Amino acid sequence: PEDIRVYEFADKVRQPLSEVIKILFNLGMMVTKNDFLGKDEIEILASEFGVEVTTIDPKDAFNYEDSYEEDNEDSADLEERPPVITIMGHVDHGKTSLLDAIRNAKVAHGEAGGITQHIGAYSVEQHGKLITFLDTPGHEAFSSMRARGAQLTDIIVIVVAADDGVKPQTRESVKHAQEAKVPVIVAINKMDKPGANPDMVKAQMAELGLNPVDWGGDVEFVGVSAKAMTGIDELLEAILLQAEIMELKANPNNMAKAVVVESTLEKGRGPVATVIVQNGTLKIGDNIVCGSAYGRVRALISDRKAQLQKIGPSETAVVVGLSDVPPSGEILMVMESDKEAREFAQKRYEYDRHRELSHSTKTTLDELSSLI
Ligand code: GTP
Ligand code: MG
After folding, report:
1. Whose CA is nearest to atom 28 of ligand 1?
2. Quick check: CB of 157 below 6 Å from ligand 1?
3. Ligand 1 centroid from CA 93, angstroms
4. What is the average pLDDT across 200-220?
5. Is 112's pLDDT higher than 50?
6. Which of 284-298, 304-318, 335-349 has the weakest average pLDDT?
7. Which single residue of 20, 47, 159, 333 could bond 89 by disulfide (Cβ 3.0 to 4.6 Å)?
8. Bind-site residues
């Protein structure tokens, strides 16, 4: 069975509904006929009734992500891809300022005036190589993506204010990176301040296991000032160096698989989602599914508001054309046909809806006895 309700189970095993509910009730489980049965409950009931059942996790039954042929990718098809960076660090140490500084430092002259508008992700070019920065509102977004198995970040830049040193959220960020096994580069920010003490930062970070390269360790520390716009090139160089060591690869010729980093409902455009492509190339006209949303890529808008025809691995754009606003962390995938995309979305929609219903079902004893 896919997702099975109590009454559906009774139907399938040709037993009275009241009998099924009674057995569960005697086991201390209060259910109504519309509740969904878990794997354990189904097994107990099956043995009570002497029937054989096979259970399939409904999520597995229509998990389009599993159909993605990435694992059997021929190594000959793989090409170098840009690194995806997340910036973390203690409150007020300058994460947002640094993201803005990097973006502004790399803005073409025609776009002068400074970019201050918030966006979920952007890419900059350094010596002809792209680097994509993910602007997560905080650790939460990062965790939710990781929980969904979307390992999006290749390198974490931890920002530490040179005049403040390691603080609780700095430690958290370090722990995060270590647990996720993501390499770290430390940006010692606010170097313009009179009280800047980079050696203190290095010593404190070394205590957490991040040993500076110039002290014989393997972690790059780069002094920067988001305010004075210094050290930005050095930081980007350190990122490219680390990326080179990691030999990040993807197949640009596959159908696209991307991760939603941000989404919203936009006036005139409808649902829009900022995505980062993990593998393949996303093109205008592609049939896409994204959780319970589906559609066709109508437009791809770059972080500089340019209309793009396609985006490759590690590249980012705002996708226009989805039927609904997907949650961040959701996987967006290209399907062969519109029909296929629609079907996956529909199944996911029904599944999500059922889950909501079964979670919100509260049973009282009165209701229960009226059923028995
Ligand atoms: P939260 O998002 O609140 O965690 O903060 P944040 O880490 O994004 O820090 P943000 O970029 O908002 O900067 C915090 C304060 O530090 C602001 O007042 C910035 O102007 C200031 N600041 C950031 N970078 C620098 C810098 O390089 N030098 C100096 N002097 N001030 C800086
Ligand atoms: Mg901020």
Report:
1. 190
2. no
3. 5
4. 97
5. no
6. 335-349
7. 159
8. 89-96, 135-139, 189-192
Ligand 2 centroid, distance to 345 Cα (angstroms): 34
User: Considering the entire predicted model, what is its pTM?
Assistant: 0.80
Write down the ipTM of this complex. 0.99
Task: Name the closest ligand to CA 196.
Answer: 1
Ligand 1: atom nearest CA of 193 is: 30
From the CA of 93, give the closest atom in ligand 1. Answer: 7
80 lines ligand 1 (CB under 6 A): no
Asked whether residue 195 carries a pLDDT value surpassing 90, the answer given is yes
Ligand 1 neighbour 91 (Cβ under 6 A): yes
Range with the poorest average pLDDT among 25-34, 186-195, 304-313: 25-34
The verdict on the CB of residue 225 being under 6 Å from ligand 1 is yes
> Of 293, 287, 283, which is closest to residue 345 (Cα–Cα)?
293
Q: Which ligand is nearest to the CA of 162?
A: 1
> pLDDT tens-digit profile of 325-364?
998 888 999 999 999 999 989 888 877 776 655 544 444 4
Residue owning the nearest CA to atom 21 of ligand 1:
94
The pLDDT-based confidence of 368 (bands split at 50, 70, 90) is very low
Distance 92 CA to ligand 1 centre (A): 5
